[in-house]
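Morning!

This is the sequence you dropped in the shared folder:
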Amino acid sequence: MNAVQGRAPIDAARILAAWGQACRPMAEADLDQVDEIERQIYSFPWTRGNFADSLRSGYDAWVVRDQELLLGYCIVMVALDEAHLLNISVAPPAQGQGLGRRLLGWVEQCAAARHAQSLLLEVRPSNLVAKSLYERAGYERIGLRRGYYPSMRGREDAIVMRKMLAVHPVSGGTDGN
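The structure's back. Tokens below.
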């Protein structure tokens, strides 16, 4: 049993195979669990209010669930032809099983479907796991934001990364705009 959740270990293969049922838009009802996970995994977490504001602003927001158990979530802002990944997180019991990579791929697909040509993100230099994930996924460093993140020692820089997205032609000859 997983001591954190009081249940059997996460069956990541089953969840990844049933991605369409596991991944859905984030709703206000998800925010308590999102907030709980956020506080578990970050020293300087987003607040519940940050997530609520993102939903009210119309940002793309997704959750991955295994029935009642929240496994991961992400927030993406799409503006014109560029998307900006604001937050992507996987709950501790689900980490290291490929869910983060699959969620990142989902973000890329959704951004491309919204006609974004690139996806930008920031990552702490100290977050070696996330930095490695992004590099393996084809993200390139394009800049540095000095003093971007709060840290235990004051401020920490952010590495700015970008990935160019594949353009998906719209069927039927029109994009509906």
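Headline: Residues 1-7, 170-177 have pLDDT under 50 and may be disordered.

More detail when I'm at my desk.
O.
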